[in-house]
Amino acid sequence: MSWLLEPLAYQFMQRGLLASVIVGILCAVMGTYVVLRGMAFLGDAMAHAILPGIAIAYLFHGDLLVGAGVAAVVIALSIGFFSREGTVKEDTAIGILFAAALSLGVALISSMQTYAVDLSHILFGNVLGVSTSDLWLIAGLSFAILLTVGIFFKQFLVISFDPVLAATLRLPAELLRNLMLVLLALTVVVSLQTVGVSLAAAMLVTPAATAYLLTRRLWPMMLVSALIGALSSVIGLYLSYYLNIVSGSSIVLTATVFFLLSFLWKRMKST
Amino acid sequence: MTHTPHRLEIEKVSIGYGEKIVMRDLSFQVPHGARVAVVGPNGAGKSTLFKALVGILPLHSGRVLIHGELLGAHKDCVAYIPQREDVDWRFPVTVNDVVMMGRFGKIGWLNRPTKADKQIVWKSIEQMGIADLADHSIGQLSGGQQQRAFLARAIAQEPHILLMDEPFTGVDVTTQEVTLNLLDHLRNQHVTTIISTHDLNLAASRFDLVLLLNHRLIAYGTPQKVFVKENLTQAFGNSLLVMENGMMLVDECCPPDEEHILHHAEVK
């Protein structure tokens, strides 16, 4: 059992593990909406679109998470704004904003001297660099997001499954949709530190897609997705420790293995 | 608002998508508990009218009053059975989940379903004859069973007005029968039902009132009054064939539905 405990002798590993598990669960839960509402592209775009926020925060020595958070909310609401009443199709609006924000982010970062290292941390995460205060912020934000999902579970279910029913029930669908976008944006921000912007999208989609194959109700789908997200984080972090590979990659690859297994299981079952 | 005998009033309503008006200057009144068939050629604006009544499509002009109050003043008093294409059948929900959604308007934002809600849901499911399917995914059901699940949801909603878009098209005989029985049951509950259909026979035999549309009101009243040669000619134009013995035929099968036509119009 010593191989299990050995990495935990380091405090930074303990913090890293906790942060990864929290983020794994959070992404997996929000990911169910991403998968069911066909927002995978949006999740990916959102992750990259927060880059300028981080860069600006970095340049002014501000808190990176705050910078990312502001950028994410701005992007989320802009997508809602441009695609409102169908002026521009939603995926077109996402595509334009995503590319613009990513370019702005890279432009800003390229002006820095420690460009290469910083960019790789931002893109792929730096789970072992999670400080105690980072951990608190991650835990606090995650709790708030999950609580909001719990509170609006019914409403999110209706606007996702049947927008027409949402209209007849007089639900403020536009408001709920924006709220969901903001929650998604915050989720990406929280996962920045552990898996980085380029892999956050994978953590949003892969565990939820796996759970979709294994369950047939929304609530169990969320639970299974969360379980897979947490397991992938733990296994991935250990792999990263022993194989000496980037933690974000090993976490995402572990989740991918779960997906492949459940995909094969589903195929075998249906034949 | 008991002084008004009419519970649904449509006053000079025009509806359209963007600049294109699909329904012009429509006025009619439906007494409480009546059963109305909405008929007219394809693309006449039947679905458009429904969407406006549900509140998904804003009115261009005019107003809709329910119980004497503007549309939207009442929560959840209008239920709508959507057309099949409007639903994501791969969504992970069971029949029971779908029907429970009908209660969400009554449950309130932050509360959980009570025992009473669950009972109402179960009764609605039983009434539609799909009790044995309650725990099945909605996607596993046949088309007719899916429609019955949505009918169960509409009953669970306890609406005053129920709108159904083509519930008799493309479903099995059992579902047609269950739907017709449901209409009788709803009549006893004084629920107003407004149903679009292509089945003129059904409209003539099983409905109190017929609303004949073709981008505007052609005729409205009892089937005997509405289904006369002048009205039908106005509504259906060349697709109406009048036989020598006075019989009239309408061939109205399966052209594209009005939304598609509209999209083409917008693209141009």
Topology, element by element:
The complex is a heterodimer of chains A (271) and B (268).
Chain A: H1 2-5, H2 11-36, H3 40-49, H4 51-59, H5 64-82, H6 90-110, H7 115-124, H8 132-151, H9 153-161, H10 163-168, H11 173-195, H12 197-214, H13 218-243, H14 247-270
Chain B: E1 6-17, E2 20-31, E3 35-39, H1 46-54, E4 59-66, E5 69-70, E6 78-81, H2 95-101, H3 104-107, H4 115-127, H5 143-156, E7 161-165, H6 173-188, E8 192-196, H7 200-206, E9 209-213, E10 217-221, H8 223-226, H9 229-236, E11 240-242, E12 248-250, H10 258-267
Parallel strand pairs in B: 3-8, 3-9, 6-7, 7-8
Antiparallel strand pairs in B: 1-2, 1-4, 4-5, 9-10, 11-12
Order of helices and strands of chain B: EEEHEEEHHHHEHEHEEHHEEH
Q: Structural class from helices and strands of chain A?
A: mainly alpha
- Overall CATH class of chain A: Mainly Alpha
The CA-CA distance between the termini of chain A, in Å, is: 40 Å
For the record, the count of structural domains of chain B works out to: 2
Main structural class of chain B: alpha/beta
